[in-house]
Amino acid sequence: MNTYANRMNQYNKVNQQTGIVDADPHRLIQLLYNALKSNLSKARGHIERREFEQKGKLLTKSVEILKALSDCLDVKHNPELVENLAALYDYCARQLMQANLQNEVKFVDEVVELITPVQQAWDDIRDQVVQPKQEPTYNGTTATA
């Protein structure tokens, strides 16, 4: 059974890496939000179970993801929105540091509440910002399998 679990973990890891390689920029941000929310959920559980080492690792990863999200902001598109998102990500990172120091789930819960609508808005605009992939053509005709 352990071998099966190891194989599934390997498969999931390869699948995840392939998803990242094939992802467009919008999808990469979605993956960051998904990873952030997953880490926060796990960290919350570790706080509740008083598993402080695991909690610390996940909260540190979450802060790194917030930094990555902040680094992806492009001031050319909407300076006011970028400024607001940068401030939100910074605030969330500070709250997660408090969660780590005080071992309090309320800080994690607050970050989840703040990030969820931003993530949802990002998901909602996908069709507006991502061009559909073109089918490969050969001599003017679409190639099909």
UniProtKB/TrEMBL annotation:
Q: Which SUPFAM superfamilies match?
A: Flagellar export chaperone FliS (SSF101116)
Task: Enumerate the Pfam families for this protein.
Answer: FliS
Q: Record's InterPro entries?
A: FliS, FliS_sf
Question: Which keywords accompany this UniProt record?
Answer: Bacterial flagellum biogenesis, Cell projection, Chaperone, Cilium, Cytoplasm, Flagellum
Localization of this protein: Cytoplasm, Cytosol
Q: What is its main location?
A: cytoplasm
Supply the CDD domains for this chain. FliS (cd16098)
The Swiss-Prot or TrEMBL record describes its family as follows:
Belongs to the FliS family.
Record-given protein name:
Flagellar secretion chaperone FliS
